[in-house]
Write a structure and sequence with these properties.
CATH superfamily of the largest domain: Dihydrodipicolinate Reductase, domain 2
Radius of gyration: 21 Å
Structural class: alpha/beta
Strand content: 15-25%
CATH architecture of the largest domain: 2-Layer Sandwich
Number of domains: 2
Shape: globular
CATH class of the largest domain: Alpha Beta
Order of helices and strands: HEHEHEHEHEHEHHEEEEEEEHHHE
Number of strands: 14
Amino acid sequence: MDYLEEKIKSLYIYYEDVTQSIDELDHMELLEEYAEDLGITSELKELQSYYTDFDEFIKHDMDAVVLANYAHQHAPFAIKCFERGIHVLSECISNGTMAEGVELIRAYEKSSSIFMLAENYPQMIFNREMKKICDGGTLGKILYAEGEYNHPLNSTDYEFYKGYIYFPEHWRNFLPRSYYVTHSLAPLMWSTGATPKKVSAFGVFSPIDEYGTARYVGDSATIMMTQNDDGSVFKFTGCGAFGAHHNAYRICGKKGQIENLRGMGNKVMLRYNHWEIPEGMEEVNLYKPSWNDKDEDLINNAGHGGGDYGLVRDFVEAVASEDPGKLSSSIKDSIESHVMGFAAEKSRKSNNKVAVKA
């Protein structure tokens, strides 16, 4: 991470919060905490500042912006960055509508900016292991894969909801379950290289009684199946809320399959047909994968099972080298996955299979 140490010279924050006035927030104290974490020295503190006007904020001479504002704001803010040649690391989701996706890709293609969706689940240790096994070819042609992002919430946990859904009009109260899809879908696309082209989807209606993200949506999950560009099939959830909490993935080829085991930490199970066992392997292999990464200590201290560090490292290295090929996903991947979510909602409502047209 030499680039991080050499290049971060200043820190600017744009802050929009509907629950607090700007005078109630000690932004400079917050900036000082961030600066200390990033190793920004005291003599550079005069370069730190905060803004409540995004247009003024991006007039600074800066390399990149992290978009961690409300989900429905990401695309228009990213477009403003593209227009100034600023690189963008955007929280999920990349675009909230088909029209936004079109506007986003058109602006990106006119710019010199690098864009990455902050989708951290592919960088979890078991998903990195699955990609390694898929790339190694021992599973044979990939035929089928499953992904589940399941995040049930205690409907009486007011403190949690106050932190995540802190006013009635918050986007989490309205978002269809299929729209927040990348935590379940992205690891499958990344590991296999396949892209969904047709989708069928079914909602699981079970409204949360109080405070919940499904207050206005009503579904606890959307279950989707896709036919992909390579002939394979995926089955996955959007943001599910059935018991019990897990992130689970399985990838099946003609010769074998690999999956992480629900409720078993980071353990994976890799199995082969008994007549097609690779040399040095068993028919059933149950193990905890290793990072085998020079930054393992930093990874282990990062959030989301190390995924946060992995995606930020990819982004920083891509920016440093001006090479978007170093990213683990492209803007095209991001838009295609969200367009799939829109098509899934159309399928759920119409009870028909829908083409994914990105």
